């Protein structure tokens, strides 16, 4: 089964628990990891790795000594990711929940990261899960770190991310199907309002 078929099947069965009907395009994946200084970054986290297109974009850029933690909840996606990145020991595939982010990082010898890249369907999360996600991100993200979030509804969620971050920038990527983009956020607020 190819990535598209697997992704579409998951979307049809689970709806908004899966972020999209299809994996991110190479163009969207490259966009999602832009702005990272690959010469200096020592570790980063990917949330909702799916079948791995963003993980692949990271793998193409990250140095072998940069620890990459790719977290995915779905066991089928995790199995595919483990096969795909088996020969890259600096990329760790973790089947887990984002609410356990701190414990997952500690298990891999990390406390904080400079970048978090997310493919999660954050806008469809219940409010308490969204709050828990950003609280967990706040505990592991360096003060000057960035949070990158892909989306398939360009511009619609700027207000949502402004509730959580002081700086929010959106970049459109028309070559994805459907058209999509990425939010680049910095300065997580200590007491965000919903």
From TrEMBL:
Gene Ontology MF annotations: rRNA (adenine-N6,N6-)-dimethyltransferase activity
InterPro entries: Methyltransf_25 (IPR041698), Ornithlipidmtase_OlsG (IPR048196), rRNA_Ade_Mease_Trfase_CS (IPR020596), rRNA_Ade_methylase_Trfase_N (IPR020598), SAM-dependent_MTases_sf (IPR029063)
Keyword Methyltransferase recorded: yes
Ranges for domain Ribosomal RNA adenine methylase transferase N-terminal: 14-176
Keywords associated with the record: Methyltransferase, S-adenosyl-L-methionine, Transferase
PROSITE patterns, A to Z: RRNA_A_DIMETH
Name of the protein this chain belongs to: Ribosomal RNA adenine methylase transferase
Organism: Isosphaera pallida (strain ATCC 43644 / DSM 9630 / IS1B)
